[in-house]
Amino acid sequence: MCSVVEQFSQIYDQYIEKIYRYVYLKVNSQEIAEDITSKVFTKTWEAINNKGEKVENPSAFLYKIAQNSVFDYYRQKGKKAVISTDSIAELADSGKTIEDRAVLAFDVEVVKNAMQKLKKDYQDVLIWYYLDDMPVEQIAQLIDKKEGAVRVMLHRGIKDLKDICNKSQNLTS
Amino acid sequence: MEKTIKKLNQIKPRQEWVVLLKSEIINSSYLAEPKVNIIERKTSVVEIILRVLFQRKFAYASMTLLFFMVVGVFGFAKYTMPGDIFYPVRKIAEQTQQTPIQIAYNRSEDLVRAVVENKTQNLTPAINEYKASVSDAVKNLTDSLSNKKNKEPINNIINEVIKIKENQKNLQVLGLNVGNDDEISKLTNLLSTIVKNQIAYFDDATLTEEQQKILTQVKELNEKERYSEALELILEIQK
Fold first, then answer.
1. Cβ-based contacts of B7 with chain A (< 8 Å)
2. Angle, alpha carbons B120-B121-B122 (nearest 5°)
3. Contact A9/B22, CB-based, under 8 Å?
């Protein structure tokens, strides 16, 4: 039993922030992100403890559950991702001046909102590649596509994100 | 743009929520579900084995095999002696079928066998078992005689006691003297009690002339503390 707890504990500590961030960027709500993330890890614990499964690839395992959970959330609630501006306070304190933090928070908020307007597939690859530092090879395995296809998705994702950000800034100015 | 995307790393969950969630997940499942599942897993393995064993095709074969195994173990156990692996099986079988004095006789036989066959590894356990069985028999017979609730016929007891005493003599001849031991000396005291009881019983009974003569001899042997011989003559009176 002890090794089960240790195994889960290791996975939890390593992935809790990543999974939360992944979910948060998709649902844009702290409360919902916490709820879905807790479901992801509860399912992981059940798989390890009750079913006795050995999680060979925790990253793939967790993101698969997270993807399905987000999908279920939108399907059950009949909701679409809503762009919100109430979450700048949730960003961690980077230790800079108020002015710097304000500029930074603005940039981040723009990108965050733009991310939520992005196609789902592009969202995933951009989060995994730029935020989780996941290699292209692993992303390709995760979404069952060739590495070349992932690179194309990254390229197009960045391009689309830039376009969405520019449109957003033009509207603001 | 890539740098700005990386800034999204600043999105982090609340630290207290992270800690709380972890302990909640582990504790809630840890307390209730796993135990049930472990039992279920064990049960399922046992169920599978039982299902296989008790399938119609296997039922007769497995029952026959089980029967022969039990008979084999008990049969084999008959020939074991103290210190052998299967001796406890024999001991259990004896305890359910025989009286303490009969068991004491069996142990005296085992001891003689161990000495005759020079089974040195069995000797010490055989001596210990013999002493324990005699002690047990003496206690049982003393209780029976004092309570007058002895269910076993006196001649059976006498017969067994005589055989035990004979084995003691045989052991002495073979160079093993266990007669001076405390436990064994209790047996001699018991013999004297039995002889005295029997003399008192026959004094009150109506005896033939022949029986009266034998009783006189019994009394003489009793005075000389030759109880085994006295018991043999008591058996003659009872015929």
1. 104, 107-108, 111
2. 90
3. yes
